[in-house]
Design brief:
418 residues, alpha/beta, UDP-n-acetylglucosamine1-carboxyvinyl-transferase, Chain, 13 helices, 21 strands, binds shikimate-3-phosphate
Length: 418
């Protein structure tokens, strides 16, 4: 039986890499990043910025971004292409609304199906002029004289929506306040050092306004915990396995997956080595006896990107597994509820589908079969790990789609599974 014995450093966190490039572009002068993730998504962000007149260079393992005030950005000759990246489309929209010239933004077929109304409504309320057909990409941004800051309570937990509004707020008259009832990843407010306030009703407000100076966000970007989750899951299940990951993001709005795995009996130790600007440190995982654990609703936002791999892992754990209150999964790179359910049925999991999640009983002896990824990188990587848990073979229709977030995935997997 194969096992994992490895000590690794992973490519930089995707959410932090996008923000590093975007925030550096807004700040006058040079910013430097080590371990920037040049996956397809973050490259889409860099390419859009380049079209907008921001130059960057990559040499000696360092990304150098040369930023300037948006007034000095240049009008692109083409439609900006966010490709498959929701983070590029939504965060960049928060900047495009402030530019003194017209721009257009689109993406690939999957991104054109993802909801943009969630950013269009509040940005238009701030005075932005955005034209769209049916509130989907492509979007056309018209220059406006000024935007007005506003208070906006997020109807769904979404760091992309929150970040788009806070970015627009940096160039608006007055203050923009975004109110969250359920915390979403907080990289934007941490990196931009925005003011945060705990409200008496348990919500949290984050503020931005044109007086905020954009700080230097130069850093060594910590490894991506969402990518780490695939190898951690494999390690917990495979016999006699031990994995050490160095300098991985341990941001408390992202590390919920580790808490779920620990609650399932996973032997996982963490040691924080850096606290600022982003918490990061070492994670060690070892083979464990796993029992499925109830997942409270308020943990869902924190583990949203890890649910595909968590569910694959749960097929190897004892007891009932259930994900509910996770309708947002239907609006990711694919409808992840429907894809997980369909593919689980192909490989022998008797799974029940709900509008907001799915459930099954573990453990399950997985079968081989042909899995459909719908071009969704996280579905592909989750079922690549499922393949390690069966003697039969699980084939993916599009193994290359992992490059959206993690082009190195197959090489690393092959190297660490002995
Ligand atoms: C992200 C936010 C999340 C997440 C996505 C990255 C970000 O999306 O699923 O992979 O970098 O802000 P939502 O904001 O739509 O929840």
């Amino acid at each position: 039986m194969p096992r994992i014995h490895a000590h690794l450093k992973l490519p930089g966190d995707k959410s932090i890499s996008h923000r590093a490039a975007l925030f550096a572009a807004l700040r006058y002068g040079e910013s430097r990043f080590q371990n920037f993730n040049f996956n397809q998504d973050c490259s889409a962000t860099l390419n859009c910025l380049q079209e907008l007149g921001i130059s960057w260079q990559f040499e000696n393992k360092t990304l150098r971004v040369f930023g300037k005030h948006p007034e000095q950005w240049k009008q692109p000759l083409t439609i900006l292409n966010a490709q498959n990246s929701g983070t590029t489309a939504r965060l960049l929209s928060g900047i495009l609304v402030t530019l003194p010239f017209e721009t257009r933004l689109s993406g690939d077929a999957s991104l054109q199906k993802r909801p943009m109304g969630r950013i269009l409504d509040p940005l238009q309320e701030m005075g932005a002029e955005i034209i769209s057909a049916d509130r989907f990409l492509p979007l056309q941004f018209k220059p406006v004289r000024s935007l007005r800051g506003m208070r906006y309570k997020l109807p769904v937990a979404s760091a992309q929506v929150k970040s788009a509004l806070l970015l627009a707020g940096l160039f608006a008259e007055g203050t923009t306040e975004v109110v969250e009832s359920i915390p979403s990843r907080d990289h934007t407010e941490r990196m931009l050092q925005l003011i945060k306030q705990d409200n008496t009703d348990g919500t949290v407000s984050i503020f931005s306004n044109s007086q905020d100076e954009i700080p230097d966000v130069s850093m060594t970007i910590p490894g991506d915990i969402s990518s780490a989750a695939f190898f951690i899951a494999a390690t917990l299940v495979m016999p006699d396995s031990d994995l050490i990951l160095e300098h991985v993001s341990l941001n408390p709005t992202r590390d919920g997956i580790l808490r779920v795995l620990q609650a399932m009996g996973g032997q996982i130790e963490t040691r924080e080595t850096i606290a600022f600007p982003e918490p990061a440190g070492t994670i060690r995982a070892r083979t464990s006896k796993l029992v499925n654990h109830a997942i409270p609703n308020e943990w869902i936002a924190n583990i949203i990107d890890e649910i595909p791999i968590l569910a694959v892992l749960a097929t190897q754990a004892d007891g009932p597994f259930s994900i509910r209150n996770a309708k947002e999964l239907r609006f990711k790179e694919s409808d992840r509820i429907s894809k997980m359910v369909q593919n689980f049925r192909t490989i022998g999991v008797e799974v029940q589908e709900f509008e907001d999640g799915f459930a099954f009983d573990g453990p399950v002896k997985l079968r081989g079969g042909a899995v459909q990824t719908a071009g969704d990188h996280r579905i592909a990587m989750a079922f690549a790990i499922a393949d390690l848990f069966t003697d039969e073979s699980i084939q993916l229709d599009d193994p290359d789609c992992v490059a959206v977030s993690f082009p190195e995935f197959w090489d690393i997997l092959q190297r660490i599974v002995q």
